[in-house]
Amino acid sequence: MPATQAPQRAPRAVTDLFPESLALSPKQNAVLGVLREFPHGASATQLSERLGMHANTVRGHLEELIAQQAVSQRAAPAQGRGRPTLIYQARVPDTRAVAEEYIDLITHLAKVIDVDQAKEVGRLWARSKGTGTVDELMEKLRTLGFDPRLREDRTAIDLRACPFIHDQNPPHPSVCGLHEGFFQEYLDAPEGIRFLPLRSNCTCTIVLSTGDDAATSPEEFSEPA
Fold it and tell me: Which pTM was predicted?
């Protein structure tokens, strides 16, 4: 009989290792923050000197961090007799570096699809989330780093930041198309929502109104005050 294939098991999600996901105490955060400054790891003594804490106190925090899988430990090469020194290393990723690498990846992926294909990808993305209200979209945009502002007349949302900007380079047009498809599908308004990217006042605008404002051209739609 053919051998039974072992079930595939994915590695741990990187988001589980983000400091925000670990619910660390202020002292644990302080120890972890200093440890992350040592790319090849550090001993408890090295950390205690940097933190101004007793080495045993630092070890206690490190044990707690190991229990949360935020830190690993290994024995340093033996230096004569006695117990080898333990070297601790942070397992948490650099969230800024992670974001920048994925921005770069998405930018390259966007170059191999046209804007219409990107819009369809955005629609598929939205369908995986389900439809929502304008207020729910605002919360989602805020969480994702778009720094949104809903105009008082609720005709538009101005996006004052973009998680896909890197080194001040504007995103590829297909990235903007992906977002337009997402906004249209999420708000269940494929014909009533327009996205005006890269406006002269350094914002992008989601036009929500289905009245007279929506009938104007992108050039005529007013800039936010």
Answer: 0.72
